[in-house]
From TrEMBL:
It comes from the Bacteria. Gene3D superfamilies: 3.30.530.20. InterPro entries: START-like_dom_sf (IPR023393). The chain crosses the membrane at residues 6-23. This is SRPBCC family protein. SUPFAM superfamilies: Bet v1-like. The keyword Transmembrane applies. Keywords: Membrane, Transmembrane, Transmembrane helix.
Length: 177
């Protein structure tokens, strides 16, 4: 009996180790859209964290969300924070790097429903004088044992539609100005 339990326990441990080895270790999700506005106007709008309140799909999922801002919005070190319902969770986003008219890089620090950190970015590229491509994305690492669960869940499918929705709202806002 004891030997059977030890074999089962050993098998479970081997299975968990095996799954941990083969499971994805990182993720990257991005989407893009073309906006009929000049690049400098698009970039100037995007660099302010406060403006994300207008087009972020997650802020729309909780009408009672609490949010705030620390630091000088639109500059390195600015931090927006939020506390929301189960769908939105809580966390903060900090501007880490700004390359004028090119890229805004931020760090997303999720607190609830689970702790994690992701690197996010928004890139802009001039297509025509009045047309700008916006690429919005984020990436990060799965820690063990969370990476095992990711065998059964696709991050791109989980949040890709939210990115598309947010970019569509961004386009509508910027093209209506």
């Amino acid at each position: 009996m004891l030997a059977t339990i030890m074999y089962i326990l050993g098998g479970v441990i081997l299975l968990v180790v095996f799954l941990g080895v083969i499971a994805p270790k990182n993720y990257h999700v991005s989407r893009s859209i073309q906006i009929n506005r000049p690049l400098p106007e698009v970039f100037n709008y995007l660099k302010f964290l406060k403006n994300q309140d207008e087009w972020s799909p997650w802020f729309q999922k909780d009408p009672n969300i609490k949010k705030g801002l620390k630091g000088i919005d639109g500059s390195i070190g600015a931090v927006s924070w939020w506390e929301g319902n189960k769908e939105v969770g809580s966390g903060e986003q900090e501007i880490k790097r700004i390359l004028s008219n090119e890229t805004i890089e931020t760090e997303l620090r999720f607190i609830k429903p689970f702790k994690s950190t992701s690197e996010a970015y928004i890139k802009v590229e001039k297509v025509l004088p009045e047309t700008t491509t916006v690429v919005w994305g984020f990436s990060g690492l799965y820690k063990f044992p969370m990476n095992i669960f990711m065998i059964f869940m696709n991050m791109d499918k989980a949040v890709g539609k939210d990115f598309e929705s947010g970019l569509s709202d961004l386009k509508r806002i910027l093209e209506s100005e």
